[in-house]
Design the sequence.
């Protein structure tokens, strides 16, 4: 059976060039980067080079790049570290309703500890508008955290404007850029953010490695206490192969950004047009313009997302349902609900995310399978029967 | 996540659709919860379920249990069908993931709902005639 992967926003395959760069650091150059001896110094040199490369690619200083275990840790560190470090300013944190679970859950923990958290709404297209922040920010606000691009519906947020508002009120600004880095151009200095999280495996790098960019002068408290790694701000033996890997992956991703962006967006647009032309009663979730090139998210009315996901999976197609039971939670996507999509439509929503290796033939195959799958499930659905019956 | 039997039942469900000459119909669940099952039965004068079908909006577990449950009560008497439990449906499917167990309750409830509707409405009407 043909197998087509359309879940690149969940994770991407490691690219061969990245694997090649990483391999020696598993075996011959295995030293602990904190060791004084030559074995250790090989590792330390590789980590330094990687840090300098990433800093150069982002246009920031090497001392502003901190390696973590991934996007989730970076988000936890930024939020919890700043919340406690800047609690003397106030205990008010502002984030949005459409953040990744790493932020939402961290906020829930901070609420338990006595912080006040305000969750900004988004508009029907999934955009967190600057005026929403303007309305709720106050002198007690110590940190504002809004994601650069949403993982479910791909909406790109007005970070520069949001950041300016935060700074005007003396608050620190963090952005979760996990979905954006390697997909769209990101200029950290232009955005003006104080902290930014990203993760290696979203752009053909290894899993288990992430970065937290921390602007000079910003000092979040430690999340992971330990040895002297990462300028004593994040303990734990440095994951040398993965540090080398994320650096190489970022270098490749940015070198090919324009080419990949164009290819991926063309295929996504072709897919979206195909769905809207051939399948009635669909809602294209998110914003048509302010959107990551790889993301398409549809609500297919009258059917439930998991059964569609599984039907496609049985046809060799991998995509993702933010909704319902698939992820173990029975709640529909908090992101889709925040956009005002009714619960029953949120249950029937599916995300397709495209990658640099996706082909037009893949998209044609997926469209064909999708049209059949939706039709099969609708023919089973009492909601569809009711709708058709009502029209007669 | 699902065993082969559940996947097979989901991808090729039995007794799908509306039964035109049904005399017992029951609907349970709601779209907000993400699960609706509607069951149609044709019950004869001897209280035997001659034919049965379903329409389900829901996850793979909901569709698979609908298929199996309808198969299990076909040809059975109303009394026998009322005794069908969600445990029997789950056993027939060889088990369901823990977070999906509630889906099997839907089938049991839909069957009971349809039979109750039949007993209260249809039989009453018949008696009056």
Sequence:
């Amino acid at each position: 059976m043909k197998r087509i992967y359309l879940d690149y926003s969940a994770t991407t395959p490691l690219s061969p060039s990245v694997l090649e760069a990483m391999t020696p650091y598993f075996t011959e150059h295995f030293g602990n980067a904190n060791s004084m001896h030559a074995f250790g110094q090989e590792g330390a040199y590789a980590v330094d080079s990687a840090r300098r490369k990433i800093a150069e690619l982002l246009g920031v200083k090497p001392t502003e790049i901190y390696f973590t275990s991934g996007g989730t840790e970076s988000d936890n560190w930024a939020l919890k570290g700043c919340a406690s470090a800047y609690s003397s300013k106030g205990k008010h944190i502002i984030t949005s309703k459409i953040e990744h679970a790493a932020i939402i859950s961290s906020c829930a923990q901070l609420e338990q500890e006595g912080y006040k958290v305000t969750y900004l709404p988004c508009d029907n297209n999934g955009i967190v508008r600057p005026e929403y922040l303007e309305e709720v920010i106050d002198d007690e606000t110590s940190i504002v955290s809004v994601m650069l691009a949403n993982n479910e519906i791909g909406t790109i947020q007005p970070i520069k404007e949001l950041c300016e508002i935060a700074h005007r009120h003396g608050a620190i600004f963090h952005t979760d850029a996990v979905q954006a880095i390697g997909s769209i151009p990101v200029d950290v200095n232009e955005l003006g953010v104080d902290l930014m999280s990203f993760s290696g495996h979203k752009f053909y790098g290894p899993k288990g490695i992430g970065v937290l960019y921390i602007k000079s002068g910003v000092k979040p408290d430690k999340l992971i206490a330990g040895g002297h790694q990462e300028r004593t701000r994040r303990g734990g033996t440095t994951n040398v192969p993965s540090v080398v890997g994320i650096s190489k992956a970022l270098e490749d991703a940015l070198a090919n950004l324009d080419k990949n962006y164009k290819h991926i967006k063309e295929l996504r647009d072709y897919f979206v047009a195909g769905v809207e032309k051939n399948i009635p009663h669909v809602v294209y979730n998110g914003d048509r313009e302010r959107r990551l090139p790889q993301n398409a998210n549809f609500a297919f009315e009258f059917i439930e997302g998991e059964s569609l996901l599984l039907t496609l999976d049985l046809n060799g197609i991998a995509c993702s349902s933010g909704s319902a039971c698939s992820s173990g939670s029975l709640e529909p996507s908090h992101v889709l609900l925040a956009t005002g999509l009714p619960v029953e439509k949120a249950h029937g929503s599916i995300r397709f995310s495209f990658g640099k290796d996706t082909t037009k033939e893949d998209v044609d195959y997926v469209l064909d399978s999708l049209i059949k799958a939706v039709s099969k499930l609708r023919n089973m659905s009492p909601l569809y029967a009711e709708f058709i019956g009502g029209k007669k | 996540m699902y065993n082969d039997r559940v996947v097979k039942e989901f991808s090729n469900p039995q007794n799908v659709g509306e039964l035109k000459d049904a005399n017992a119909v029951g609907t349970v669940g709601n779209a907000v919860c993400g699960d609706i099952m509607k069951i149609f039965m044709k019950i004869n004068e001897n209280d035997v379920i001659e034919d049965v079908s379903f329409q389900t909006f829901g996850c793979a577990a909901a569709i698979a249990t609908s298929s199996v449950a309808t198969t299990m009560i076909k040809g059975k008497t109303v009394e026998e069908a009322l005794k069908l439990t969600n445990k029997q449906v789950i056993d027939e499917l060889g088990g369901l993931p823990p977070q999906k167990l509630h889906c099997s309750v839907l089938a049991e409830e839909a069957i009971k709902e349809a039979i109750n509707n039949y007993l209260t409405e249809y039989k009453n009407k018949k008696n009056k005639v």
Remarks:
- The first helix of chain B runs from residue 4 to 11.
- The interface with chain A takes residues 2, 7, 10-11, 13, 16-18, 27, 31-38, 55-63, 99-100 of chain B (CB under 8 Å).
- The two ends of chain B are 52 Å apart (CA to CA).
- DSSP finds five helices and three strands in chain B.
